[in-house]
Amino acid sequence: MSLSSDAVARRFGDGGPSGEGAEDNEMIRRVLSRKTVRRYSDKAPSEELLDLLVAASLSASAKSDFQQASILRVRDPARRAAIGELFPAMPWIAIAPVFFVFLGDARRLQRIGELRGKPVRNGTLEGFFNASVDAALAMQTMILCAESSGLGVCPISVIRNEIDKVAAILGLPDLVFPVAGLCMGYPQGEGYVSLRLPRGATTHSDRYDDSALSSVIDDYDRRRNALHAIPPDQQRGNNEFGKAEFYGWSEDKARQAAKAEGAAFPPYLRSHGFSLD
Ligand SMILES: Cc1cc2nc3c(=O)[nH]c(=O)nc-3n(C[C@H](O)[C@H](O)[C@H](O)COP(=O)(O)O)c2cc1C
Question: Residues in the chain with pLDDT < 70?
């Protein structure tokens, strides 16, 4: 088995295609084994490396070349602490050596329209969606480049749960919104590669078909549980849902998603320049 096909097997464990025989590619191998990191050593990445990562991130593809991602680095310890205090359950937000915020920036294109005397209405759903996708692509590009430099990262979308406070701390104007923060530092400890859904659930050929979902998810739950069982004391919402005898990934995610997050985000957007029509 090649290193890549080994990594595919570890990532999916679904017995699916392994890529065996394809030319070795270091980047693909790294991506297959990547993992989110939430604990960091004290060593800070150099400013030069961070400059490079920002440049690489902004080299990501951008819809229509509109370039609607912006990157904000939170350097001021007081602002960092103020954001961290909003999310005590995620201490890595306050203590990671570096913290970026990836912004969907629908404002710049609208301002460019003003500068050129061509009115642009960019608070539409299209404007919001394009800016979100650009910011997400920029973030993922930074993630992969940072990981290839030996750094570990953790995206932080929970900041949108306190959007009014976070936007005030960061001085965000209308039509600019956070897609996610990004904690970054050199990893402390090994972490583990998180098993992905079997490709039978997430890939389709020619026609969408999820008819086997139920059995595929049951199988995934069992395999994931054998690798990284969720301890009984980490079951969510037992008061509401009751204690589960078997508590797999799908039970955990269904419970998590049933408690909708981000209620403050739509009203925030609507009162900050987005009509979303
Ligand atoms: C858009 C996005 C937002 C995320 N937000 C958070 C967050 O707020 N807090 C956190 O601890 N992890 C967050 N994560 C990390 C995910 O939980 C993590 O990627 C997922 O569990 C899969 O793990 P892996 O990346 O190691 O494969 C986020 C990831 C993404 C892509």
Answer: none
Residue 170, amino acid:
L
Size of the chain in residues: 277
The pLDDT, as a whole number, for residue 271 is 98
CA dihedral defined by 209, 215, 217, 220, rounded to 10 degrees?
Answer: -120
Please tell me the distance from the alpha carbon of residue 251 to that of residue 15, in angstroms, as a whole number. 23
Q: How far is the CA of 56 from the centre of ligand 1 (A)?
A: 21
Give dist(CA 25, CA 260) in Å, integer.
Answer: 40
Q: How far apart are CA 128 and CA 130, in angstroms?
A: 6
d(CA 18, CA 30): 15
Q: Is 194's C-beta closer than 6 angstroms to any atom of ligand 1?
A: yes
Is any atom of ligand 1 closer than 6 Å to the C-beta of 90?
yes
pTM: 0.97
Rounded to a whole number of angstroms, the CA Rg of the chain reads 21
